[in-house]
Amino acid sequence: MPLRKSDGPSFFDLLTKQAALLVSAVDLLGSMLGSLPLERVALRDKLHEIEHEADELNHALTKKLNMSFVTPFDREDLGFLAGRLDDCMDYMDEAGDLIVLYGLDDIPEDVATLLAAQINVLVRCADQTATALPGLKSPLDLRDYWVEINRLENEGDKAYRHTLTALFDSSLDPVTIIKLKDVVQVLERGTDAFEDLANGIEAIAVKES
Amino acid sequence: MPLRKSDGPSFFDLLTKQAALLVSAVDLLGSMLGSLPLERVALRDKLHEIEHEADELNHALTKKLNMSFVTPFDREDLGFLAGRLDDCMDYMDEAGDLIVLYGLDDIPEDVATLLAAQINVLVRCADQTATALPGLKSPLDLRDYWVEINRLENEGDKAYRHTLTALFDSSLDPVTIIKLKDVVQVLERGTDAFEDLANGIEAIAVKES
Amino acid sequence: MPLRKSDGPSFFDLLTKQAALLVSAVDLLGSMLGSLPLERVALRDKLHEIEHEADELNHALTKKLNMSFVTPFDREDLGFLAGRLDDCMDYMDEAGDLIVLYGLDDIPEDVATLLAAQINVLVRCADQTATALPGLKSPLDLRDYWVEINRLENEGDKAYRHTLTALFDSSLDPVTIIKLKDVVQVLERGTDAFEDLANGIEAIAVKES
User: Which pTM was predicted?
Assistant: First the structure.
């Protein structure tokens, strides 16, 4: 039975809420780096809860898509945006998981500083995204946002390369290198996911203009 | 020239056959773990044949999609299901390949037991899927199936984490760890692919209801 | 405002140009293997420029797709082809990046020879693709091309397996193995991307016939 347009939260509300959760998720991820093992497990559990909440929003959006006659943008575009927001969250969740799973307790300070720089890029990506999404109805006005995300992705890419080089130049044992490389790569994929989202919004803006 | 609806196997037949092949594939994969190197190559070759057979079914379905005026579900949904069945098969095939390619002959018993637990999850995923697919015409009736697959995916995720932790805590040499980590991750992706398939069927059920 | 069909380069022109850039990219990648560190950075920078140029073509095609009423093939098929051409380029660019980033200066000769064999497969894939694309208007006539790419992908797969086995059988230190494995896998994914493109063209041919 198709919903009336006014039933429940709008597509824009659902996407905006998904974006807001990304800010909480990346904050938790940042806190994990500097914390003690036990705290870290608690932070990871909280990150899982947020990921779960975002998942529910994503399912609600898919359901609404399938039940609506009229959608504010093309059906597949709305699905694409929700999917990319979901990707961003999944990478943060995965990074938190790996940090706990791998028991990365004694990260050398120079590598930790570089990891923090990568996470800092993610913090700014999430902030930009959460600030931009409430304006999604007029995607052309979000130009500054997608330009800034593309700039951040470049910065993130440089941070990623620096971390990787430092890792390989370190005298860490190979197994620790394997573990840290996994974390570093998941963070990099997270930044890419934010860029994919921004590019998707740009493409919608072009199409709607 | 568009086919008449009655020409050749139906979409449901093709998908059901693809699912049945997954049961054979994962059985072969399970046999590979406990077998001697030479037997293992023979089992891998058989696994390749099955993968090839599944590929033909997938191609036949794509061709039929392109040539049919009327399809029982949305065109892209049928393509999605065939593609996910193909992913499941590809991951099993890749796991078999890696086991032969990497010459993993002396897997320590505790790691082997954990790998077997991961494969056991895949066995049950394949069984559930092959049992469910003949009922695809009424996707809403497959609720038990998709709930069970989501439960199995959680179980598989735990098995994956246990194996990974055991691997990193082992005193295996780093190169062996790299190899086994590849196998463990491909098995985990296989479980995820079964979940993607089940979620796709759930989404169709919601849409058709 | 929708463009008239005659405005700017055609869809076929844009795809053909993307394919031509792949030939230049893989040539640069091949030159990187045998060159000194400093030359290598210069070659990588040139590869980046070409990747950027291809990106612009891809964006132009997306924009044109969004602004055209009439498209020579289904809209999503044209988008798919441009996306796969983009994937081919991205993998070559990533391979070049890794070679510089990882400072792979002393690759043992047997491994270097095997890497060169992998790149040689990519050279032939790019050549075949660039030769075929100008004939895309009549995709059924491109049968020889897609058969040959599938053959090359098999050859590439064998080269990939040989390189990986040689790598693991070498007495290289684990960290160097990790680095080289990354390069070898990106090259393999590049070959797969060429196959995905060829299979996409085959599917269009079947559909249009």
Answer: 0.86
